[in-house]
Amino acid sequence: MRNRYLDLLRFLAIVRVVVYHVTGLATLTLVFPAMSIMFALAGSLMAASLDRSGGSALRRRLRRLLPSLWVVAVVFVPAMLLTGLVFTPRVLLWLFPITDPPANYWGGLALSPIWYLRDYLWFVLASPAALWLFRRAPLPTLAAPYLLLVAIEVGILPTTSAVPRDFGLYFGAWLLGFAHHDGMLRRLADRVLVPVAVLLAGAGGAWILSHPGPRGYDLNDIPLGNALWSAAFILVVIGRAPAAAAWVDRNRTFGRLVTITNRRALTVYLWHMPFVVALTPLVGLVGWSPRDPWGLAIRVVLVFLLVGVVTLLVGWVEDVAAGRRPELVPGGRPEQIPGRRSSSPPGTISPGTISPGTALPGTASPGTVSPDSGRVAAVPDPRVPGPGAVEARAR
User: Fold this and answer.
1) 107-139, pLDDT tens digit by residue?
2) Measured between alpha carbons, how far is residue 12 from residues 24, 38, 265 in Å?
3) Torsion sign over Cα 155, 158, 164, 166
């Protein structure tokens, strides 16, 4: 049975990511920390997959993630090779981006959200051991990423690698997804959960206010504040997730849109930034100010329309990767409801489904979304050499 509330969370996260990349509004990162929400939902689904399938869950998770990336690589890697990217063995990282694959100047901007897939791969590979540790020592395991991030941020553990910092920033959200799957968050009494959430939000807010980044109070520039603020957000919106949310489908059009976005989340995430970057020169060509509300609104609409076209063309790859029957536009068949059999093939886990033994019904698959981040697309810099250099601005 699907939990449409969790589907709704992922829908909101994907929309927020796209709107933020077009507008660069820092307030959006505070109002809805989309990337941490998506990592938490992905962690919950990963725990469900491991419980159901054991070690083969890694293969299934990777099978669902990588084909959509390969479609992007087939289009953009040859284009980058023709426009300045030098072919080296590292180009093969576009097949399995365990670290940032190479890109030329425009590819580094258009494909900067690739950091999300890099982190997701690391988290998936770490999940079997992490889940084992979490179930034996939940609090120390959950605290470890945050302590790692504190050590990095205060200079105790200096590093130039993005992977340790992102483990500190986002793996805590992934582990909170484990806690959601195991029912731990739901079992927390309000007298415990609410004070903990308030304490985390207060600590995160204090760090944010005292450590503004180059774009002010944009969470993407303030990792520790981001992690703490997001943890509080997750405890509330996922820790108190309802068992069902039939009201999401009361409006058939809106319910269908939520379904489509969930089934095509990775496609939307991977393809929206190229369109954001491509449309940016229109600001100057038509005389809009970068902060002109009318111009920003038009760009948001255009990006969604263009992503919609690409989704129609290649979004079915996500169906194939998930072992579903390919559909041009998902959601034509009714969502599963109690008492009806699932339309998913045996052995697959659809976004938002309950795994046997799950205490809190429903999970949601990654978006990937990351898929999220910064104002990278608002004013692209042709001097940027590749994804790694713009990662902090592409979340």
Assistant:
1) 999 999 999 999 999 999 999 999 999 999 999
2) 17, 10, 11
3) positive
Burial 305-332 (b: 16+ CB within 10 A, else e): ebbbebbeebbbbbbebbbbeebeebbe
Cα–Cα distance for residue pair 209/18, rounded to 1 Å: 25
Residue 44 CB contacts under 8 Å (≥ 6 apart), including other chains: 177, 178, 180, 181, 238, 363, 364
Distance separating alpha carbons of residues 261 and 284, to the nearest angstrom? 31
Strand partners, 216: 213
Q: What is the 3-state secondary structure (H, E, C) of 292-360?
A: CHHHHHHHHHHHHHHHHHHHHHHCHHHHHHCCCCCCCCCCCCCCCCCCCCCCCCCCCCCCCCCCCCCCC
Q: Rg of the chain's alpha carbons, rounded to an integer?
A: 20
CA 13 to chain CA mean position, Å: 8
pLDDT tens digit sequence for 347-393: 333 334 433 333 333 333 333 333 344 333 333 443 334 444 444 44
- In contact, 272 and 303? CB cutoff 8 Å: yes
The rounded distance, in Å, linking the Cα atoms of 36 and 60 is 22
Q: Rounded to whole angstroms, how far apart are CA atoms 86 and 98?
A: 20
Strand partners, 213: 216
d(CA 276, CA 390): 15
Rounded Cα gap, residues 58 and 375, in angstroms: 33
Q: Which residues lie across from 391 on neighbouring strands?
A: none
The full 3-state SS of 240-302, as one line of letters, equals CCCCCCHHHHCCHHHHHHHHHHHHCHHHHHHHHHHHHHHHCCHHHHCCCCCCCHHHHHHHHHH
Confidence at residue 280, expressed as pLDDT on a 0 to 100 scale: 81
Q: Are 365 and 57 within 8 A, CB to CB?
A: no
Amino acid at 271: W
Which sign, positive or negative, has the C-alpha torsion 27, 28, 30, 35?
negative
| pLDDT in the model for residue 159 | 84
For 70-90, write each residue's pLDDT tens digit. 999 999 999 999 999 999 999
Q: Rounded to two decimals, what is the model's pTM?
A: 0.83
Using CA atoms, how far apart are residues 154 and 216, in angstroms rounded to an integer? 20
